[in-house]
Amino acid sequence: MINEDDELIQTYVEESRDHLSDIENDLLTIEKMGAHLDEELINKVFRAAHSIKGSAGFLGLRNIKDLSHKIENVLGMIRNHEMIPDPEIINILLHAFDQLKKLINNIDQSDQIDIAKYVASLTRLTTIVLSSENKEIFSNMVDICLPDGNAVFRLSEFDLSQSKKGARHLYLVECDLIHDVQKKGKTPLTILSDIQDIGIILESKVDIARVGTLEDEALPNGIPFIILFATIIEPDQITTLFEIHMDKIHHVTEDMMIKSLPKNEACQSKKATDQTDLAPEKQKSVPTFEPCEQRLKIGDEHLQVSKKETSLRVNVGLLDSLMVMAGELVLSRNQLLQAISSGDRQASKAVGQRIDLITTELQEAIMMTRMQSIGNIFNKFPRLVRDLSRDLGKEIELILEGEEVELDKTIIEGLSDPLTHLVRNAIDHGIEAPDARRKAGKKINGKIFLKAYHEAGQVNIEISDDGKGIDGDCLASKAVLKGAISKEQSIVMSDRERLNLIFLPGFSTAENVTEISGRGVGMDVVQNNLDKLGGQIEIDSKPGQGTKIRIKLPLTLAIIPSLLVTVGDENFAIPQINVDELLRIPYTQVKDRIEVVGNTAVVRLREELLPLIRTADVLGIDCRYIDPADQIKKPNKRHSIADRRSKKSPLIKLHYLPITESLEPLNQSERRTQMDRRSRSNSALNIVVVSTGVFKYGLVVDALHDSEEIVVKPLGRHLKNCKGYAGATILGNGHVALILDVTRFAQMAGLTSLSGKNREAQGIGAREGQNIQEIQTLLSFRNALSEHFAVPLNLVQRVEKVKASDIERIGEKRVIQYRDASLPVIFIEEVAEVSPMVPGEDVLIIVFSVAGRRLGLFAAPPIDIVEVPLIIDDTTLKQTGIMGSIVIGNRTTLFVDIYEIVEKLYPAWFEKLNQNYAHRLSD
Fold this sequence. Notes:
By secondary structure, the chain is of the alpha+beta class. The protein contains 27 helices and 39 strands.
């Protein structure tokens, strides 16, 4: 490489990246417009390729110059309306620009990278539209000479003819890098940039041969820098644009004569008819690069070689404001030192407030320097959607919203890969083929929505489509086939938990393995990457209607709003993005509201059981309390959050169940009778309800403090193995507070969750013979007086009490009027061999949602909600509609398979589900 100036090379790379930043979207817009060209837009793309070519010639970047020159030729013919930009032409240009980006990102090795196939494709594009006579100008070469007869450039007649279409005059300028550039405070790139503003540069180089050697008698007095360019400026005005001697500007006439402007001296240029390897092809069709699979590999390779940017462009106005604030901070420091030395406390207080204000403004300004628009990521997706939809034979429209939303540079870089995978999934798995959409009554062209917006101090990103959606039942079936979960687990899972199975490692819904998907690598990686960014991901999908994926992210990883809490004598910070709400249970209610299920304390929060973790127990901190009598810290001997003398808990009674009207009041004897050991207000429980995306729980802490913006400090190498911490921060009092990682903290506490990864671990453990007992919430009831039954509570929608007279019998079916519709109701004995139920005047009906429809099951009181280890005996009492039996409260209880009962009585409801399940079994 001729020029070894690293700073000059880096400047060229940054400017070239700026030129290429919007190229893809501009080309896609040009493709949509077709023959109705936007002159301004095509000129913008042309100038980008031309600018890259002009500077590359001076820097000796041969491959970059050649490739950008060929791109420039095609764009020039489109600009001159000699070529219509159809999809195949745009496809070639897109891949050529991809290769150009690769060369620029690997500037040091750019001349070793093969570009022959791209140059050949672009060359064939330019020859296709030419007549057979005009194709000869590609091989006819012209020498451009200086007045002394020395040839400095050799160009094809095609390049010369193209340059004259937009500019009437051709000039050859000789500059001196020492006297005309360096001594005048300029750089070669600024000289080239100035010329590009007035014309088109054909060639430029540093003529080293004319410098001479050390053996010459006379030492060289300059370094010639020669530029050949075309412009519309007349010869009598061109001299006003350069600060060089008049005899160094030469006018190249129509007959290729070199004419010095002041002296009118000229020389006859020589023509050559040398044949080159750019001979035109006889083939008339527009060429393409490779088949679909290879093109995808090229795109992936391009992504792999892209390097992370190590510099930022900052607005000059923002830098000016930073300088002003830095100056004010220095003045305030001097005032503070003077106030301290004089002992003026009032002045010290006023200066302290001033420093606090300046520091806040300075923090916000510095944060702005790291903020980048999320449009930097969004802008690459139109190209991705276009290419993949073409390869898959689908018609997809991408709708972007919120490109102006800004995020920290670190988060932007870490977000690119997860978003790319989610968009590819929406294209491949979400949007159906045109025939399938037509049969489903949808428009042929599918839509993918990508939206970003601010909410509650966070950035929310939504990726949604109007495709076929995700079938949670199919996910559960495939998870059972893979052995990740058991069939019993799949039955008791909620719809949200079934969708979360997609985050299982190695899990894929693709029918076949392709270059795009099917290997089961992706969604678990997406979740892991978002966890590292402090983000959360949620999936909401309806089969046949589409899928929506929500991502929540902090604005920055350097400074985050956090809730400060105290446990024992230690301070901790919980990121605000993970905090759902704060809950305080007064000491008078602890005994009644806290339950113990197995070994886990739970609290019912809005009809949902919330597991509790006492932070001190997990971290091994000795809890202390201040004795109100003597104000001395003493060890806290309370070992149970629920404040009971044993771990046994009575059943959760019916008054917790969401029913339309109360059934039977509980006997007072059934309520707890233990004496509460909590008698002071400081015995109240402080609970931080945190969410990890797929589940939430409560952290019990000793004290709650204000929310603060904290500066995140990474943990040292010797603390890297400490689980449960995302970093540390230094508080205003100088103490260190660790930042809790709520996801890993739950794992440390052994909290049972229904997330995909924990389910996989449970499935693996079961296969290895471990004794895993999963706690489940069940609704127990009776059918006959002596037989007890149970169903998973998460399958139950409501419990209704109705009059027996309201039951209608139509043929062999029974229905009741329920919410302005007919609700089918059934007895267990219609399918299973159990004792029949004798309905009284009032009956209870348990409402389920099965296969997308509601159905009621007759039941007899008492109805209880219980938390028990799900250990099912699936052999002794198993039959149709009964999965097996479990023991609840020293009673044998039959575990009802509501799906099998409904499938037996209403087989049409399960027709689609059975087809999907059979299809999974055949894979």
